[in-house]
Design brief:
The chain is mainly alpha-helical and about 90 residues long. The chain has one domain. About 75% of the residues lie in helices and about 0% in strands. It contains five helices and no strands. The longest helix has 20 residues. The radius of gyration is 16 Å and the shape is elongated.
């Protein structure tokens, strides 16, 4: 299988998983799911073939994905503790 066809297959699997996840997390995007796959799953696990990647994608847990999305939102560079404190004190 060439790289282009693998990318298409992985994209379709992520899209399918996104449909399933959207029932629980309404505001999730494809980029959130892709980020979770790259930042969490593939950093911990090695991928040997398409079976491995499909296993990891289809076994993504909703609660772990939600925790990841919250962590990303908290650690964004434009959100700092100082800005949070200012908004609390001003508000």
């Amino acid at each position: 299988m060439n790289k282009n066809s693998l990318e298409k297959i992985i994209y379709k699997m992520l899209d399918l998983k996104l449909l399933e996840v959207k029932r629980e997390i309404k505001n999730i995007s494809f980029n959130d799911l892709y980020g979770y796959l790259m930042d969490v799953i593939l950093k911990k696990n090695s991928v040997k073939d398409l079976n491995d990647i499909s296993f990891y994608i289809m076994n993504i847990k909703i609660n772990k994905l939600f925790e990841y999305m919250n962590l990303v939102e908290i650690t964004q560079k434009n959100d700092t503790v100082i800005n949070d404190l200012k908004s609390i004190l001003e508000g």
